[in-house]
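Follow-up to my post from last week.
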Amino acid sequence: MEVDFLLETWKKDPEFNKCVTSWQVAQPTAGMWANLPDALQPDLQQVLIRLGYAQLYMHQLLAWMHLENGDNVVLSTGTASGKTLAYNLPVLNTLISRPHSTALYLFPTKALAQDQLRNLLTFSEGFHGVTPIMPSVYDGDTPSNQRANIRKTANILITNPDMLHQGILPHHTLWQRFFCGLRFVILDEMHTYRGVFGSHVANVIRRLKRVAAFYGASPQFILTSATIGNPRELAERLIERPVELIAEDGSPHGKRHFIVYNPPLIDPQLGLRKSALQIGVKLASEMLENGRQTLVFSRTRRTVEMILTYMLQRANPMLRHMIRGYRSGYLKSERREIEQGFKTNEIKTVVATSALELGIDIGDLESVLLIGYPGSIANTLQRAGRAGRKQQTSLAMLIASPDAMDQYLAAHPEYLSGSSPENALIDPNNLSILLQHLRCAAFELPFKVDEEYGLVPISLTQSYLELLSQTGELNKQNEKYFWVADQFPSGQVSLRSSTPHVVTLIETTPDGPHTVGQIDAGSASWLVHPEAIYLHEAESYEVKSLDLENGRCELQRVESDFYTLPTQQTTIEEFSSIKHEDLNNFSKHFGNLNLLLQVVGYRKVRWFTNETIGHGEVNLPPHSLETTGFWMTFNPTFIERLRESNQWTADPNRYGVGWPKLREKILLRDNYQCRGCGARPERSSLHVHHIQPFRSFFDPSQANNASNLVTLCPTCHHQAEIAVQMRSGLAGASYALRNLAPLLIMCDREDINVMAELRSVLDGNRPVILVYDNIPGGLGLSERLFELHQSWIHKAIEMIDDCGCTDGCPACVGPSGEEGYGGKAEALALLKGLF
Amino acid sequence: MDWQELTEKLKRMGVQVGIEKKPDRPLKKHRDISQLLTGHEIKTIYGSVFSSLHHYPNSYQHGNQKIVPSLQLTKIASWARSSQPDQLKLEDLVFLDTETTGLSSGTGTIAFMVGAARFIDNELVLEQFFLRNPAEETAMVTALAEFCDGMRGIVTYNGKSFDIPILNTRFILQGMRSPFIDLPHYDLLHLTRRIWRNRLAQCNLGNIEQQILCLQRDDSEIPGYLVPEFYNQYLRDGNAEPLVGVFYHNKVDVISLAALFAFFADLFANPKAWETKEIKDLTSVGRLIESLGDSELAEEIYIKGYHLDRPQEERLELLLRKARLHKRNGQYHLALPLWEEASQIGSLDALLEMAKYHEHINKNFKRAFEICNQAIELVSTSKSLKQTAALSSWQHRLNRLNARLSK
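User reply:
Got it. Predicted complex:
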């Protein structure tokens, strides 16, 4: 009961209370129980009772009934609600009652596969005599001398989508027995199959169904998911069959406290708050001193190390051995030792990155501290769910960082308890991804001319097959397409990137080069431009060189207290509207875009405070992106109204009649040399820039004072302008919209881009806000935002309205500049006019 | 969207689809395979397939080797774990070699040509089943299964890991059971490696033909790596002319299989009869015979090799093998002189055996001590890392002997 005591103390502390924006208490529930189904095999029933499962939760029984009925099922109940048993039960029962049956289990990581194997073995060993349950893990780590035997005997095959794609489907004849008996396919942690990865996985499932059908099998699918906004939709898009959703959680749980804590403002002008990290250290230390166990989650490896250091400094020397870190980079044995120590209560505080997030069993915890929002509600709930897996009182606390999303959630904590608005999206018909998998599928089995591939329109499949015949990879004979190329197509397809062209990330270490991973060639100039700080598994690397031609990027591990944000120039080359709708004061459009992207520089931003501490230039060639986007165009009378009420200052400036002369004077003064980079381009191409924006002055003559003017080359000028543009109302609104997008669509920050254009080709040189998918061909992300525009704009208004800053900060419309010119009021006026 | 629009669209998305501009080929060059090779259509219930048929009398010489064994097959049949090895007849075997659309394993690699040969009525009958297009595969595997009917073994070169898994896959894809499952398999690559790995840099069939069968292929030959490309081109333009070389390549491969099999069968039946001048060959044969459990015969072969006049370093392995055989039988008086001889060539292994013998069997610690010193001297001047690494274990032995001597 000590955690209750501690909570009472906090409750009475006014300093603490002032910062709590939400304190929700879920009352304990007894759970909804059900008896084991009658149709259960007697052997299995005995094993279940022996293992302590004499009764089921209602949702487990419901899953059983649906599966008996031949349905496909997605379970989207809370953490620790026994989802695993819900799918194991029907699988095991079928394997016993129909001896040649098999089941395929797909997990997104190898660690989860090993966890599941241990779990299944406890069932397998529970049988007297020869067990009917033979689970095996088959992945990249499986020794080759065991593989033939697994193919011959396993009736539960545990693997991951990558292995299925490269190691099993292209060799399906070796798995004849397995596929002939295939009755169930399990996709656990389905919410991880979203975006590019999910679109690939959906195609791997299409191929799996195709191969299974060849052997006369048509398996049922069982999927599980963290709480997301669209579990049924995602499941149905992944397997392309109707799916029954089970979301009502029948498992019992103890009293659960969920606290959202927003550190106090220390500078309202700049929106600066007290450090979330220091508060986390303080609270975790209090827990430790009270003898309570706490799991502290932090976003990066670097902050894990900082929290550890601070905690060790604060802690009583007698307690120091009870504090441990946990992240990638630790040895496997070290991790096991920490997990074990945590289970046995010898370790009290573990500070971890996401490395500890998914499914790894660390026993019963009562408290979890999240320092900073993990990026999605699903992840937040998953981490919070590490506490209170049994029925004791538990605590989860989110300490908000100054990031926009953190601040929004601190003001709107209801999103953390109600139903999640996050949509996990995939587009299995993305043209590039489809091409890659049709090649793999054709390798696996010849295509018939009229064969349907998933839900792809048959005419599109036809075009692909014809295209592949033209390249000589397929040969068409007797109404069939045969793979005849000397290639192994799945070896060339990575499920993690949208195109087959990848850049390999290579770390330089004292022991020689080491491959860190691969990324899409298309996003390389954005993610790993020279001098960028690249984060991989919470580890920071500095990019030493990027060779796009040979697909090679060299990294070096660094301890960096900042991250980088690229500055990208986007030119709209072509566009075509697919659908649009005229609304109050504006129109929304969705359509195809052909863009020219060029990364020209980057900003260095300090972790946690988000202040910009420097700029850099990048010299990379532009590349084109054919994608889909959603843009908003504004009614000219609406803009005029804003302008009249002085809420639209983003117009081109009228510098006055003396400007050409003055301009020439400044150029001469600066010796026709760019004062930014020192370049001496053609004289006519040089610009003269107002250091403090022209429009921030009431008196034009003051703005045109020589001390406020400087010569710049076009590149430097562009960068200087971007900083200013950020603060216009249009830019402020798009800044807010961009930061809120992940609340509606689950995606990585890099998957979409939002931009504001003052004079856009999209609307005859009028202002536009554009959001596009940063993935060739698009994945439906901006399309979903097109559909959800109302809720998106509404949230942006809330975010800006609720922000405590005076005139813009990183948590709402972006930081106000040194000149003290913000844009908060303008952004608000613009967005409210749309609503 | 038709395929051209799709191609354009994908290109704009930055996806390379790799359509090459085909040269406009004059149509007159279209030559059908039946115009180029003598062959026949084999009719099956699943349609017909083309096959080029060849006959070779039992007396046929392939290079310097006959294609028919002179002696009994019992020994080689036991090696391949044939049931009832003494019943095996040459007519029970099928010699197989495939030409494929690629080198990767997996379901998308097609065996577009299968050369299969059997001895029938005193001649070797070779059928080269060929897919004029991939849709003929059902007919091909049906005809192949028919040809193989009643076989009791298959002979291949690297077929265990390549040809047979691919053929098994092809049968499964046609919804049939592969006739090759659970059949005794004579993979001659495995035997070739056991005999010649130490002597020949490459154990591919081409090299064995040249070195052992003394065979030269003629100008029709095309190298194996070009085969998939030639077939792919043929599927595109229908011109079979370049495939003549592939048929030749496959045909010689299969006959070589028969010749090499005859060689090995006779070697198994009477290894002493092999007239090789290579001491390494005899060492390998002795090893093989040892592994079959006949150490007496192995010894005879080692003795034969011992008397060959070859450079010292080539003798080393034979000396050690023979000594090992004697040591196993407790005949140290026969082993010792061999170790002595080997140690004079600089063999540390021999010194180790001698040191062990003098320390543990003969209890002559002084002699063992001397040998240790000799070895340490050898090791410390050695450039081989492996030998240098053994230094500490020699030191250890030396110290132990020192202690025993001072007792």
